[in-house]
Specification:
Elements lengths: L8 E8 L2 H6 L7 E8 L8 H9 L8 E5 L5 E6 L7 E2 L14 H13 L9 E6 L8 E8 L5 H11 L1 E2 L23 H27 L18 H18 L9 E7 L9 H4 L12 E7 L6 H4 L2 H15 L3 H16 L1 H14 L2 E6 L6 E3 L2 E11 L5 E8 L2 E8 L6 H20 L8
Parallel strand pairs: 5-6, 9-11, 11-14
Antiparallel strand pairs: 1-4, 2-7, 2-13, 3-4, 6-7, 8-12, 9-10, 12-13, 14-15
Helix pairs in contact: 5-10, 6-9, 6-12, 10-11
């Protein structure tokens, strides 16, 4: 393959773009998923093109396709020739003055800059950045920037994991923590089932109505985490994040402790508990098919008033109860149905504009993914750390969570010059230790 060839379009390779893919790549929305692999050793840049050619491009035709519009205005994926050199960026950083320093600040500035840049529509919508400078987290890093139109986090992370191996034994598959449902019961009484159906119907109407209002009319108050300028989640962790966020808001503005603030929680709507193989994902009948199978849930951030001021565990319980109640609602699938209906009546740009407004009217976006339990490696380069975030939306704050080797990493992507990320990080750490201490002082309880 010649890596200096010009991009060529092959008309026979045409695939319709999914509705969600059109929403995420429109005139008002252009959303990206940014993943970072941190390595224990410097990365051999000579391996980049062979690895992409042999491992990455064959995963899915979308990695070798561009999005075009036909005569009727419908968007299609068209297969093209790929000049891999156009997709590989290897930046040069200034030399540091002392070996005691790290390149953390240069790395942070670099990832902030590329998060704001738009990928050209004339070539496949992805690129990688090889950072061969040591930071406090690793000796080198690779940043994957992939357009959300290519697929959601489940799809893209599943694709990435297919390129990686277990560091301890490459012949063994990566394993992932299982999601256990503790609420399953087949011996429920008729009264209990009737009560559940009635409760589900009620909460569905309430949540669907509120979601529609939040997406169209009602917006959160302007607070220290929402500037108002364009520009299955673990209940305990979410409660900690909510509590830390309120501590930050209160520190910046005392009145913010009672302000209306909402988290837009992104959900994977697939009926699967773990990642499937790439071959399975490409099967449309699979439980975890490729694509953008996501929805969202509006979760109010509890206010720092009343009993919650003295007892931080109230934040955890309040968060747990809200999410548990909303799981009883059918608002999530019905919201998807309403979006489909609106796209047929008003077009994809109208839906994209509404989704833009939904995000902008909320205070923060929360998303999470699970990672492998074992250490990964890429071409014998051990992966020390791994995290991801979202870019391109109008929100002031994105909170993403990723598990890897038994540890959970929380990443904050914040609006520059508006949110003090160091202070917010400190507040979330304080929330964790405060809630941990409070939990250790009460008898152990099981959340049901």
């Amino acid at each position: 393959m010649s890596f200096n060839q010009r991009t060529m379009i092959f008309p026979e390779e045409v695939v319709p773009v999914s509705p969600m893919g059109r929403y995420f790549n429109s005139s008002v929305l252009s959303i990206y998923i940014i993943g970072v692999l941190e390595f224990e050793v410097p990365f051999d840049t000579c391996l980049a093109i062979p690895l992409l050619n042999q491992l990455f491009l064959p995963i899915n035709p979308r990695f070798s396709s561009i999005m075009v519009e036909d005569k009727s205005g419908e968007k299609q994926w068209k297969k093209v020739g790929v000049n891999l050199k156009d997709h590989i960026k290897i930046p040069l950083f200034p030399k540091i003055k002392s070996q005691l320093e790290s390149y953390d600040n240069y790395f942070a500035d670099y990832i902030s800059r590329i998060a704001l840049e738009q990928l050209p529509q004339s070539r496949p919508l992805w690129e990688i950045h090889i950072i061969n400078y040591p930071t406090s987290k690793g000796e080198s890093s690779i940043i994957f920037k992939l357009h959300h139109a290519l697929g959601d986090g489940y799809s893209l992370m599943g694709a990435l994991f297919s390129c990686l191996q277990r560091a301890d034994d490459p012949s063994l598959p990566l394993t992932f923590p299982s999601l256990k449902n503790s609420s399953k019961s087949s011996n429920k009484s008729l009264f209990h089932r009737f009560s559940w159906i009635t409760s589900t119907a009620y909460h569905t109407l309430v949540d669907l109505g509120w979601s529609i209002l939040k997406s169209s009319v009602i917006q959160d108050d302007e607070t220290p985490i929402r500037s108002g300028v364009e520009g299955t989640i673990n209940d305990v962790i979410t409660g900690i994040i909510f509590y830390g966020t309120r501590l930050y808001m209160q520190g910046a503005n005392y009145e913010s402790r009672a302000a209306t603030s909402t988290a837009l929680v992104l959900l994977n709507t697939r009926n699967t508990e773990s990642y499937q193989s790439v071959d399975d994902m490409l099967n449309a009948k699979a439980k975890g098919p490729w694509g953008n199978r996501i929805s969202f849930l509006h979760v109010p951030i509890p206010k720092l008033i009343g009993a919650r001021v003295l007892d931080p565990l109230e934040f955890v319980w309040e968060t747990h109860n809200m999410i548990k109640r909303k799981k009883q609602s059918l608002a999530v699938p019905l919201t998807g149905m309403l979006l489909d209906m609106e796209s047929r009546l008003k077009g994809y740009e109208a839906v994209a504009k509404q989704l833009h407004g939904t995000v902008w009217k909320s205070s923060t976006v929360i998303t999470n993914l699970i990672g492998p339990s074992e250490q990964m490696s890429l071409a014998n380069h051990p992966v020390k750390g791994f995290y991801f975030t979202l870019a391109g939306g109008p929100e002031s704050l994105v909170i993403s969570m990723m598990s890897y080797m038994g540890e959970l990493r929380i990443t904050l992507k914040s609006e520059k010059y508006f949110i003090d990320e160091d202070k917010l990080n400190c507040c979330i750490n304080t929330a964790f230790h405060t809630i941990l201490k409070a939990a250790m002082e009460v008898p152990q309880q099981t959340i049901t």
